[in-house]
Amino acid sequence: MDYIALAIAPGLAICLFIFHRDAYNREPKLNLIVSFFFGAVSIIPAFFIESAFVNNFSSRIGDQALKAFIAVALTEELCKFAVLRFYSYRQKSFDEPLDGIVYSVMASMGFATLENIVYVTRYADMGQGYQVALLRMFLAVPAHATFGVLMGYHAGRAKFEPKHSARLMALGVFWAVLFHGAYDSFLFWQHSPEIKPYVSNLLLVLGAVVSFIVALRLSLKLIARHRLLSQRTFRPGAGLSLQKAYEKDIPLIRDLSLKVWPQTYSTILSPEQISYMLNMMYSEQSLAKEMKDKHEFILVNDGKEPVGFASFSLTEPGVYKLHKIYILPSLQGKGAGRFVIGEILKAIARKSGRALRLNVNRNNTAKDFYIKLGFEIVGEEDIDIGNGYFMNDYVMEKKISSVIT
Q1: Domains in the chain, number
Q2: With 70 as the cut, is the pLDDT of residue 12 above it?
Q3: Which phi and psi (to 5°) does residue 92 adopt?
Q4: Confidence of residue 405 (pLDDT cuts 50, 70, 90)
Q5: Is residue 404 part of a domain?
Q6: Sheet (strand 376-386) strand order
Q7: CA dist., res. 117 & res. 259, Å (int)
Q8: How confident is the model at residue 50 (pLDDT cuts 50, 70, 90)?
Q9: Together in a domain, 249 and 225
Q10: d(CA 205, CA 45)
């Protein structure tokens, strides 16, 4: 019975891999199990359809290719697609493009696992159960997974691009059938009398294996693409990183400020004051002067592009001031600000700092955000910034009692 375990193991391992790739908005486990089960059941109609047609093809090269693409690949991928489209696609939990890949791979692994058990059991009677189980562990089952990724990637897009859903669905089936048919063609040519054994063996290596590798590489890229979208949607802070900004980054910082400021202060300040303060505090000359005055600027990246910036400096022994922290509106309220301040506090602690101060407009709800992070109101300031405008701020401070790691 060990070879049965070998037949089951690769499918389950791939399911676990995909499950853990879906780290930011995981699907209900019951839905995944049902998709896997329906995928296994879909082998039944596939078996009867294939049985009705496979004997209609001769052993000639062309006929074997047609059998691979039409009788086998198209039949099997359509059966798996039916599970994806008529069960998984309709679930409320199918709420992001990555779910197309997750559910499609689950259905594909259900199909591949049961198919694997059938093959291994059949060859076990010939004394080749272990050999077939090991070979299919590294080729056939992962190949089914890659076909599932190709189909699921397009199904995931189709769910959220309704104008193009039919085209994307068809495209997903097309790519799955294309790679599946190419893979099987090289396998079927092994039995064609038109090809000499050493040639068919070479074609098997250069064809089936290479087509699998190409599909695998493409699948991993598609998984990464949808996973990044998932991360940016559900846990934007998970992919954030900071880097020090220099004078060459000043135009970028100004551009970010122009995207953030008007929306952040539209309910607090007049458009005229916003325009005045942007020109006064975020001109390239002003930012360059602050850098020369030892304000340390940092850029916030989400793994793809800059999404914010911050600056701080030492104002008195052991006390630093956070002068600026701005994140694009699309990431506000999703943990990005908490992440940036946390990293700044760690940097200050490593410099033996004992407190971080900041000013926040008294009408700005950001005050409550800072209180949640442990800042306390320690004073008020009314700062004349010229042209008849004032900054009416709370002064807030957070003590740093020990090094934050």
Answers
A1: 2
A2: yes
A3: -60, -30
A4: very low
A5: no
A6: 241-244, 296-301, 306-316, 319-327, 355-361, 389-399, 376-386
A7: 57
A8: very high
A9: no
A10: 31
